[in-house]
């Protein structure tokens, strides 16, 4: 739902800033202009912080082993919470946009609170039942109001804080059914409302927790026997060792760790540059020392206590605070998406728990805004401990019934203003405007709802880091420096204040404000403020004492002090009274009246101070001091101007880069088009390549076919050659045979002629010798016939394969027969 | 704060005139009046001022921390213009410690209560006594019963307010910042009761 509503908000004219806070229409345009600057700054500081945390993790790992062990021990308890947060971190890793993370963070808050829906409903019902007729705003519906008897552990004697401790124990010692219910509730609360900060910030937390340890020791020394609930016992004065102006720095020096000191200096620079959105909630916890302050189950016990268990006196006050809280809940950041019913219930629980935790303060209007802010950045119980640290220590005495420290700070601020901006203060005096009219609400609200939210958060970054209220004064002085010159031209109190408020509300340049404050007022230190507090506290106490007394005698004796107080802090009223009395007003008369006021002051001072001669020397000394301060101020202004010039140069370079980016983006578009075209060409070529591949495949196939054919041809050729060779050999043999046969033919013819000659001779001769010779030629004739036939058959068989063998055998036969004939010869 | 303001709203008749308390003549007089609102938390002090200065009603107004400032100028029948410089104070009880800063030197005090809340009427009486002790002797005081539109929830009778105002030399009026009833009438009546620098 939150995400959806944010989308709608972004599409429309921005009525809320990126944190979900209401944005006034006249500032919408300015905010849009600064949105891009904020985004760039956010990206830059995220990188710086990542680098810093990596370096710290690498260099400080050995010293933080114990902390890691503690983390591992605590892990089972907060396992579900971590699992719940994992998607959150993953999303952050994917998207570096701080704004979206802010939305997701708020969405997570909403999701977490909706997860508690059932219990919240139950608690709400219980609250209604327990309130009964106390609530004039609500109508109790359903259920019978059950009043429980007085708890056996209730103590009405002794120290209020120790009584509260007893009540804590007795609350857990009630009947078993109730105990089970509470234990179940506690388990759920612990899982959902408390979470450890990420490991990379443990080193920072370790450093800042050391200043709390000192406080605890001092408190422990004062109060004996109660060690478990130290955080619940707070002194009216802040435990402050900041001789050097910062507790953290002092702690580091005491620890004698030069490396950590240099890290601290680097961290200071980063903090003044702003804490990244996605780290802010956890970094603030580290600065305040939430983990160190925490006492397990303490918060749940505060919530679990019933109203009837309160002591009579504190019960009446508590009822008053409770009623006021109910009035103020819907008027705390009205319409903010994270402060829906569930968010409001968390806010109620936190404020009620704190009222029980510190009855000296209870609830004071303004605290609702601080608690609401912290709940937007961290889980509920973490927010409670951060809130307790801020109200109990940073702003101790500010929000008590008498608001003593708040009044003292206004006197201090006026003195600082007269030192630094005498012309402006003189002009305000002339107009009848008191400085405290303007700055009073600044300090009480810690600039919430005074300056734009980006600037509020930047101021709080430094304030929580330093551990004291120095940044409060520096920021106020910076605002006077930035906008004071515009007031000097005004001639009317109303116009002056209206103009100033408008200018202050338009302080969207958060870096300018923070750097002006941090670099321009180095002389405003915690040590200086302590001195001034001691100086101005008595007069505030006197006024309070006077108001509390009703006797005339007391009033008369303090009459002079009252008049002096009145004159110091409200010269305009006296001036106005004279104007009304005299009935005429001119510039000259005004001057005369101012002089007369001055003479009155002198008379009062003379009457108070017997030795008038001594006054001249301090006056000269004051002048010397004033001149020194002026010199320091001028030097600081020079430094500030140089810093501002550097900032402007950086901004200019960024603008140049931005212009270049536009050109580059155009080129990128062109290149992308070219790439698209090239991709098309590549696609086409790939198609061609595919086609060519197919052709090649076919060619290869054809080649194979051709190759096979060629091989067959070669084989055939070889075979033919072989056959030719064989035929050649046979031919040769045949020719030889023919030659031999010719020889035989010749011999046969010779023999035939001889035989014929013989026969012709014998026909004439006797009969017995002739018969034997005739038989022998007949025997030879069949042999010749057979050889001729075989020879003829051989020629026929040459055309066939098989007859070749016969031919060869015949040829052998022929070969052997000539031998026989030769033998016969 | 919700009561933060932009550039001052000026009456058209005052444009072009020198912004000075020196009356040019008998026909026109310009008054600057510091006015402080006091009263219990949540009775509607900030809503009254916002309705008067900007003609708006914001049902989700924020809690006032310390005090907030708005100014508005009105013109009367006799050509007198009155510029109210209005300090709207925080209503929680402990802020009474800071109230002297704002009501000291104030020419007018508007003490507001909620007609649906007897408790706020008691608180208003406290403020009347406080101002009688420590305020300017000639301060003009107005008693205002706000949220008059919530008639069905009324718990403080009109007669109670009237009687108390008469007894303490104040003038009384019931208003509704929500419906704008009697808001302008309140400030006009205050302007009429202001002492004039000179009577011609």
UniProtKB/TrEMBL annotation, chain A:
UniProt-listed InterPro entries: Rab-GAP-TBC_dom, Rab-GAP_TBC_sf, Rab_GAP_TBC_domain
Composition bias, Basic and acidic residues: 65-87, 125-137, 795-825
Amino acid composition bias (Polar residues), ranges on this chain: 760-774
Domain Rab-GAP TBC: 274-467
Coiled-coil parts of chain: 638-691
Database matches in SMART domains: TBC (SM00164)
Gene Ontology MF term list: GTPase activator activity
Keywords in alphabetical order: Coiled coil
Residue ranges, annotated region (Disordered): 38-103, 121-185, 760-825
Protein's name in the database: Rab-GAP TBC domain-containing protein
Gene name of the record: LOC100805928
TrEMBL record, chain B:
PROSITE patterns in the record: RAB, RAS, RHO
Keyword Cell inner membrane: no
SUPFAM superfamilies according to UniProt: P-loop containing nucleoside triphosphate hydrolases
InterPro entries per record: P-loop_NTPase, Small_GTP-bd, Small_GTPase
GO biological process: intracellular protein transport
Top-rank lineage group of the source organism: Eukaryota
Gene Ontology MF terms: GTP binding; GTPase activity
Keyword Nucleotide-binding set for record: yes
Gene Ontology, cellular component aspect: endocytic vesicle; endomembrane system; endosome
Regions that span the bilayer: none
Keywords linked to the UniProt accession: Nucleotide-binding
SMART domains, per database record: RAB (SM00175), RAS (SM00173), RHO (SM00174)
Region (Disordered): 1-27
NCBIfam families: small_GTP
UniProt name for this protein: Uncharacterized protein
